[in-house]
Amino acid sequence: MKPSFCLFIMPTSLFSLLLLCNLIAFSNSFSSSTQPRCNDDDRSYLLQFKEGFVIDNSIYGCDPSAPSKIESWKLFHGESSDCCSWDGVECDEETNHVISLDLSSSCIFGSIKSNSGLFHLLQLRRLNLAYNDFNFSQIPEQVGHLLRLTHLNLSSSRFSGEIPDEISNLSSLISLDLSDNNDLRLHKLSLRGLVQNLTHLKALHLSSVDILSRVPDLLANFSALQSLQLDQCELQGEFPTGIFQLPELKMLDISGNSDLKASLPDFQKGSPLKSMSLSEVKFRSQSFFDWKS
Ligand SMILES: *[C@@H]1O[C@H](CO)[C@@H](O)[C@H](O)[C@H]1NC(C)=O
Ligand SMILES: *[C@@H]1O[C@H](CO)[C@@H](O)[C@H](O)[C@H]1NC(C)=O
Ligand SMILES: *[C@@H]1O[C@H](CO)[C@@H](O)[C@H](O)[C@H]1NC(C)=O
Ligand SMILES: *[C@@H]1O[C@H](CO)[C@@H](O)[C@H](O)[C@H]1NC(C)=O
Ligand SMILES: *[C@@H]1O[C@H](CO)[C@@H](O)[C@H](O)[C@H]1NC(C)=O
Description:
Layout: H1 2-9, H2 15-34, H3 40-51, E1 54-55, E2 89-91, E3 98-102, E4 108-109, E5 126-128, E6 151-153, E7 161-162, E8 175-177, E9 184-185, H4 190-195, E10 203-205, E11 227-229, E12 251-253, E13 261-262, E14 275-277, E15 282-283, H5 287-292
Parallel strand pairs: 3-5, 5-6, 6-8, 7-9, 8-10, 10-11, 11-12, 12-14, 13-15
Antiparallel strand pairs: 1-4, 2-3
Bound molecules: 2-acetamido-2-deoxy-beta-D-glucopyranose (5 copies).
């Protein structure tokens, strides 16, 4: 980071500043080659998380021509290494704690144990495990311990069973994607129970989760919502009309819910909606067709 800061000031600075910059850059590269930035505990939590899986190049979403990101996670000759430079890992600049894990399409096969090191990474803000194969296991409830999460993406990764209640506690979430898993259900908690405290959501993607309940009116109060994907969810009852008028909503997909009823509002010019999928939804009025023509 510092060297680029130097590049920025160089054009306006004197020769002495340039020298200073070189010194900073030098000491920076020197320290990073001798001392791993990575927090020691986080490094062992990551390695313990990795141990629970096998790498299988034949699973859906895996790119066999690219090495799995998680394969770069190792110690060199038993020495500690910098986990902040491992593929898919991002650390905080100041605390050196792991704050982001992107292991999407990493050819991971297996299930996440309830005592996995993952759930000790309490500074984690982004977690993406999409396009792996978690072998029809349940989403571990311990994911609800990661209270700093702003982004949680477990889409297309072969989770099944009930979505754990604990996800409803992740009130910092901006983006939640649990779509396109196998037989993932939201029967116990209901959609209302899941989202009532997730009021900062910008993206809520639950495509093909078996929800089997109403869309709660309170979603029409989620003023930050930009993308809502609830297609193939067995939704019931009446879709809250206010959702169509959310001030930031660009993308709405509620298609494939044949028991869902909806009526469209009068769309104002300047509505941010860019894409709407409504097939199979039952409409009360003709306004949709008025609007289209
Ligand atoms: C996948 O699930 C099956 C059935 O529960 C189990 O026998 C098998 O050991 C699991 N494989 C892995 C890698 O977890
Ligand atoms: C949510 O968090 C609160 C406070 O930390 C805790 O008491 C409660 O048990 C949690 N609920 C779930 C479903 O995890
Ligand atoms: C909702 O989130 C707030 C923090 O944003 C927290 O204090 C409160 O306990 C949460 N309520 C429930 C029911 O989880
Ligand atoms: C979840 O991750 C997948 C794979 O990286 C990506 O295609 C998808 O857009 C992500 N979902 C959200 C809501 O960002
Ligand atoms: C939505 O917000 C308004 C204004 O804050 C409030 O009066 C109303 O009860 C909320 N609706 C729901 C369903 O929570």
